[in-house]
Input
Amino acid sequence: DGGITQSPKYLFRKEGQNVTLSCEQNLNHDAMYWYRQDPGQGLRLIYYSQIVNDFQKGDIAEGYSVSREKKESFPLTVTSAQKNPTAFYLCASSIDGRLKETQYFGPGTRLLVL
Amino acid sequence: AQTVTQSQPEMSVQEAETVTLSCTYDTSENNYYLFWYKQPPSRQMILVIRQEAYKQQNATENRFSVNFQKAAKSFSLKISDSQLGDTAMYFCALRDDKIIFGKGTRLHILP
Output
């Protein structure tokens, strides 16, 4: 089965703690994305990567970091600098970064602050 | 700056009726794509339909079709013969050199 997996489904963060959200895809896609979704809001782009070992900041990158060491993996770290991390996080991928390519989404991770 | 506006926060229609969700956008680019995504209660984002800006013909996918008015920068989604499974949040998205999502319309299909 080809697709995008995200883990965990729910994640709890304590004050001052860094947490990492996993995103894996077996679609052989070059481009991967991280979005944040808040209640009553659309998706906002955090980071994206068009190729291995390269990534760019999106609209709300502050307090987040990413890596792209493997084509199939694009983990997102929510650092302690992110003061309001409670949200639903969605990972997506596309064949490449061209405008016409459809993004396919994972099932999401809900992050809650204790 | 690019913007996407969905003016209907919430809508309800009876099963089998036709419903239209509105979306307006703004971009200075000539080459762009528009998308409608569906997010059911499971929260999985699913592509419903997409439109290339350079194509005049409106995109259609089974019961879903769009009314793309490029000059007016309008991109509405029509759902025909609505079904209970269409109940979801619907997001309009614009992609030029970046991707912007609207805030969504929550659609309820009533039995």
User: Anything to note?
Assistant: DSSP finds no helices and eleven strands in chain A.
